[in-house]
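hi got a favour to ask and not much time before my train. below you get a single protein, a line of residues and a line of whole numbers that encode the local backbone shape. could you go over both lines and see whether the tokens make sense for that sequence. a few lines back from you is plenty, here it is:
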Amino acid sequence: MSATLTDKRITIIGAGPGGLTCARILQRNGIPVTVYDREPDAASRNQGGSLDLHDDDGQIALREAGLLDEFFALARLEGQEMREMDTTGRIVEHHLPAENETATPEIDRGQLRALLLGSLEPGTVQWGRRLDSVSGPEGGPRVLTFTDGTRIESDLVIGADGASSRVRRAVSEATPAYTGVSFLEAWFDDMETAHAELTEFVGDGSAHAADGDRGLFAQRNSGGHMRVYIMQRVPADWIVANGLTATDTDGIREHLLREFAAWSPEMLRMITDNDGAYVDRPLFALPVPHVWQHSSTVALLGDAAHLMPPLGVGVNLAMLDASELALAIAHSDTIDAAVSDYESTMLPRSTEIAAMLDHGAEFLLAVRGMEEMTEITDARDAARDAA
């Protein structure tokens, strides 16, 4: 590590897995860093469902963070089970993980975030700080203005602030576009007792079915919870367009039952038996390729750099980006050299994978067996390795 970087002001926007992984690895290498996040505190909202962290990207980052053993203490190896079904509920493909298989274990997003947060020095994350803009000369220092009116200067701004990144605007005019596919998230609690039949139906991991225009993806979480993603090829404003509101749970359910009328009663329980309201999650993606002119004072990682359809890529690539950027900073003499070194690997990799997964949201609705799902996963991994 070059001592010249220990006095640089490095700022990360976004306390998701990517931003926190980057901060952790920087601190392990003696580099000071501050993370700013718009949420009021670490517990202000539900962090979402389960993640499968791959042994060739997400787990590599956790190893560099010194947290791999702690991860496996929390991970669910049984969550690697995958059932591919048809619309009647018949299992057409079934992957049961081998004993001690560790290629893609599952962990709840909240558990992963807590693990990363607990590894950071006290005060690293500044909560309740929503970024408004990044200004200042390209060579720095950059000026970060927050919505509360406060300003700070930074020698390197790392955008780990997701799909709607404010940091991205400092280097790129690209904006995410709607993919034509929308998810509706449904939550299930107390699975073992309140939803015992669904527990047996879905298994310990995940289950997927599609008919070409719509689909269901069920995902077991820890603590007896489950999430189901109801997938449809619809306009982004489909709820309003059908005379409904996001809070009209009964109306949305009735609409869904009409749309999924040809599906079996067993499958429809994933639509009707949820606990609470649905959550609307239209899918967006950045253009392919998404590249920008190099900046010596701004770097992007994860969805801020390469938002793609949700095919097991997002968090894994974000954490790998974070690890590689942090290590580049730790092993370079200048921030400019570090960002250049990082982008020389990240940009080709993300471009290849994004091209492979372009229109991947449509794949989620296709009538495909697990063999085809494995093929696209293998192709994605090959593109990443080649890059």
User: Anything to note?
Assistant: The chain has a mean pLDDT of 92.
